Amino acid sequence: MNKYELAVVVSAKLEEEEKAAVIESVKELITRFGGTVTDVDDWGKKKLAYEIQKMSEGYYSFIHFEADPTVPGEIESRIRIMDNVIRYLCVRQDA
User: By C-alpha distance, which of 70, 44, 69 is closest to 57?
Assistant: First the structure.
């Protein structure tokens, strides 16, 4: 199993409960494909480097998980079509 870090930027227009639901659904995706979530680091609302979809702020969350090499591709294909996720990036961490 490899260690991964998934950075997710969620729309700042959402309420706190809706933001938490989006992050929870991403965590459920990880576990559904056989991954194990080890840590979730919420950075809160931050200013974006540039405007995305006419938004200048977003909620940043970093999800650390362990999974097989095929899992990040599956997760990214699902996150890509989520409405409230502005940007995402999944990277493998060195051991």
Answer: 44
**d(C-alpha 92, C-alpha 39), whole Å:** 15
Could you tell me the two tokens for 87? 């940007």
Q: What is the mean pLDDT of the chain?
A: 93
Strand order in the sheet with 2-11: 36-52, 55-67, 2-11, 85-93
| Token digits of residue 11 | 């729309």
Q: What is the pLDDT of residue 32?
A: 94
Residues paired with 4 in a beta bridge: 65, 92
pLDDT, tens digit (0-9, with 9 covering 90-100), for 46-62: 999 999 989 999 999 99
Q: Do 58 and 8 touch, CB atoms closer than 8 A?
A: no
- Strand ranges in 1-95 using DSSP code E only, listed in sequence order: 2-11, 36-52, 55-67, 85-93
Q: Which residue stretches of 16-70 are H helix?
A: 16-32
The 10 Å Cβ neighbour count of residue 87 is 14
